[in-house]
Specification:
single chain, about 30% strand, 12 strands, 2 domains, Cyclophilin, nine-stranded antiparallel beta sheet
Length: about 200
Amino acid sequence: MIVGDRIRRSSGEITPASLLPMESPACYICAMTMQFQKKDPRATISTPFGEIRIRFYPDDAPRHVENFINLAKMGFYDDTTFHRVVPGFIIQGGDPLSKTPDRLSHGTGGPGYFLNPEPNDRPHKRGAISMAKMPRDGNSTRDFNDNGSQFFISLQDNGGLDRRYSIFGEIIRGIEVIDMIAKMPCDERDNPLEPIRMKVTVKE
């Protein structure tokens, strides 16, 4: 029983609370450290030419990172293709309609929703991964919003895209793969003649 700042024991003896041994805070500190440990998820895009390893920028584009990871976990990207290849500029993929043989529809699809842009100060350097924008109503005018699933990878430094598109990650291994993809023969719509399919996995 506590009496003021003293504790009465069952024997009747009263001991100042300040003299009682204190519990070690080590376990509490350990728990707090684990609770606030920052996640660093990575993704792998598997292609016929090898694997592309990606790290994300959750502090710069949190919604885009979360969206990409969620779609990858659902298997959304599996068997989609890099449907747009522009040597010296970008390769683009992530359209579910690219699974179909209708090549005219490739590049026009998405998951059924758009994302609000998250422009940031990350540069569109070689290997940067950014979200694509969809044509509005099928014409050449670009929609302000980002496509919900289509993304592109910069083949070279593209400073003209900075702060206009939402960068959410970069390649950390396998950058030679995008160069091999860029060499593939394409049709007049920049769509590779041989489908370059992908599978995306995430490790958290």
